[in-house]
User: Fold this.
Amino acid sequence: MTNIKHILISLIVFGAPSLGAETITSTPGSLSRQPGVRGATSLTVTGEIDVRDMQFVVDSLPGLTTLDLGSARIAEYSGSRRVAPASADVIPAYGLMGLQAGKVILPATLKEIGEGAFASAELTELTVPDGVSAIGPAAFAGCSQLGTIGLPAALKSIAPLTFKDCKSLKTIDLPTTVTAIDSCAFAGCTRLSDVAFPASLARIGARAFEGTALTDLSLEGCKSLRTVGSFAFAHIPTLTAAILPPTATQLGEGLFFDCAALEAVAMPRGIDELPAYVLKGTSLADASGALPEGVTRIGRYALYGNARIATLRLPEGLESIDDRALAGLSSLKTLDASLLGELPELGEDVFAGTASKSVTLLADSDMVPAFEVAPQWKEFNVTDYSSTDETVADGSMSRLLLRYDGTAIYITAAEPISAVDVYDLEGRLSAARRVSPPEPETSVGVSGYDNQIVILRVTYASGDRTSIAKLKL
Assistant:
């Protein structure tokens, strides 16, 4: 009895072996024949394994929670009638698909992770060794419990579908070497709210971040970004603001499609087309960043359903507005077309759902007659921009008294002013003033514009009211 008690005490003090924990030294293809491995919940493997051993782990170890391959090496396999060939130091395509283990330590010598290698696995966390230079498409797709992952420093691209539907992934720190994020790479990652976008990024593929949980998209640091694919940031219910760099001139349609909380956006100044569906179903409070100078075409449904826009300014040189591009702007009060020297070609029902009769369309005096008789345009309250210093803002007349003394413009309004922006006739910002605290009278310094016409945009303290006026200095 004394001996038994002594043994029990020793186990308690010094620790008994963990139930189901096995350490195996393997040769390629032999893992299934190792004693004790079939009941393991925690498995550490040294030596060498190949694709046959991976299939055994997935198919025959449903209770596995931890798989440590850190000291193992993946051997080449030449293939058979049942198992395809596989390269050394590579987790082959779909090699560990459906793996039950939540914690996995990968071989230090690993060079590549193949297509679908961990698709639908029960992974909760993973660090990919720095020696890995490529991760194949859909490698981690459907890993719904994957909360964190460390990516290798030399990775150059995120392949299509790599993390699709990883619904527990909250943050991702992309290596500074990444130049491309391919289509659907993070689509359906419904909790992904924090992404570190590297300055090296040149391309974002179609639907790359569709359905994620981003709140503030700031890409201005991506100075090499050229292409953003169709619907890349669509259906993100939490996105409130987005800034794209001026280099991103190749934009796909539907970029922010149905991002219902999106209130502010800065589109690249170098684009010549606002793509179709790009801001459909958003909630822009200020449309000034949506139509940068240089845009000659507004695509179909581009701003459809933006019910909060009260003032919209059309850029100089605008040539066409496609079907329903500006439909559903139910709060629109001022449509500034004063920079247009010709009537843009209109598609069908461009302004459907807009209370055109109560909207002031500001036009250059030479263009007023054309707007007054043209289909769709004539439905607005066409007004000569140069003949008035009154504009409609949220249904009421906001009268501005303007005075220029050679160095500054003095503005007096009926309510407190929070900001004044001054533009030249090409839409370039010439001067600006932020008024804190807001006051009904303010001034903004200007120089070099004598005998020229400028455009003033006055923003009131309420935040969603603006007035636009044209002034010859």
The longest strand covers residues 429-445. The domain at 20-130+145-150 is CATH 3.80.10.10 (Leucine-rich repeat, LRR (right-handed beta-alpha superhelix)).
